[in-house]
Design a protein that fits this description.
Helix 7 crosses helix 9. It contains 15 helices and five strands. The model has no long low-confidence stretch (mean pLDDT about 90). It has a five-stranded parallel sheet with strand order 2-3-4-1-5, with helices on both faces. Strand 3 (about 115-120), helix 5 (about 125-140) and strand 4 form a beta-alpha-beta unit. The chain is α/β, with parallel strands linked by helices. It has three domains: about 5-170, P-loop containing nucleotide triphosphate hydrolases (Rossmann fold); about 175-215; about 215-335, Up-down Bundle (Zinc Finger, Delta Prime, domain 3), CATH 1.20.272.10.
Length: about 325
């Protein structure tokens, strides 16, 4: 069974909420599922969709997996299960895709249950597509439910969000995340120190932590930290490091740098390792903070926040990293 076909343990409350819609026969015409990356929004939406399509749901509300509808879903050939997503990685959802959806929705569902449309990620609709999509919400068709998924709800227009029922997926308790990840990876949670570090690195999102573990992202983070520290010690050039870093995934790298600076600021005050974004780096960051200036760290933090907002633009990533790393170099040189 794939993760997509599982009801994840930290989603029980949200699942009960969705089941109440079915029990009360109040299926939302539009449902907006939000939450950070790696919390299983797509899995939850999929579970709800197949339960609505299933001819004989189980006692806990999940699909039976055996009826003709479930078999069609598993074969990805169900005519009443429509997915709208970017046609290529990194691309948006265009108006042509939405027009095609509107055309399909003019026809009646082929089965007697619901017709389900999943738009993921909904924030990838460009302006023209979003405006056209409003027609789906303003003129709902027979037995059709639209599920929108996003980790950036602020990027959706107010006219879209106001027409949706809303469901937020929140991160689980840390021990729940650790135990789940240990079970999936078939390892001992107590013995595997990297497991907890991956959870922290993923900001408590279990699926993202699993992705990090599989891709050895923790090792990459540590390599970047070594370079960051080498710049602080005046051992490496920020320009050379920026040239190397622009080839790496920018978003996680920007988050790592931001989290290091936040933790350095926190280390100016009485703080425990558990209170940091990077508890595994507590001793290292505590020592470094002792020779830095708080005001200068806040200035660097402001720059990082500003630059994180510019990542989705056409900005030159190498120049962006140069600006950050040179300021980090100068901050340490003054001491």
């Amino acid at each position: 069974m794939t993760l997509l076909n599982q009801l994840l343990p930290w989603q029980q409350l949200q699942w009960e909420h969705l089941c109440s819609y079915i029990a009360q026969q109040r299926i939302p015409q539009a449902l907006l599922i939000t939450g950070n990356k790696g919390l299983g929004k797509q899995q939850l939406a999929h579970q709800f969709a197949v339960a609505l399509l299933c001819a004989a749901p189980q006692a806990n509300g999940t699909a039976c997996g055996r009826c003709s509808s479930c078999l069609l879903v598993n074969a990805e050939t169900h005519p009443d299960f429509i997915r709208v997503q970017p046609e290529e990685p990194g691309k948006g959802i265009g108006i042509g895709q939405i027009r095609s959806l509107i055309s399909r929705l003019t026809l009646k569902p082929q089965f007697e249950t619901q017709r389900i449309v999943i738009v993921n990620p909904a924030d990838k609709m460009n302006n023209a597509a979003a405006n056209a999509f409003l027609k789906c919400l303003e003129e709902p068709t027979e037995r059709t439910s639209i599920i929108l998924i996003t980790e950036k709800p602020a990027k959706l227009s107010a006219t879209i969000t106001s027409r949706c029922q809303k469901l937020a997926v929140v991160k689980p308790d840390k021990e729940v995340a650790v135990n789940w990840l240990a079970e999936i990876m078939q390892c001992d949670a107590a013995a595997n120190k990297d497991l907890r570090s991956n959870i922290c690195l993923a900001q408590g999102a279990p699926l993202l932590a699993l992705e990090y573990a599989n891709d050895q992202i923790l090792s990459l983070r540590n390599e970047c930290l070594d370079a960051w520290m080498a710049i602080a010690q005046q051992l490496k050039s920020p320009v050379i490091i920026a040239e190397n870093w622009h080839k790496l995934p920018a978003s996680p790298l920007m988050f790592w740098m931001t989290s290091w600076v936040i933790d350095l600021i926190r280390c100016f005050y009485p703080v425990q390792a558990a209170d940091l974004y990077n508890p595994d780096l507590y001793a290292q960051l505590q020592k470094l903070s002792g020779r830095l200036e708080l005001k200068a760290l806040y200035k660097l933090y402001d720059l990082l926040l500003s630059d994180r907002q510019r990542l989705d633009t056409q900005i030159n990533k190498q120049l962006l990293f140069e600006e950050i790393l040179i300021q980090w170099y100068e901050l340490n040189r003054s001491k």
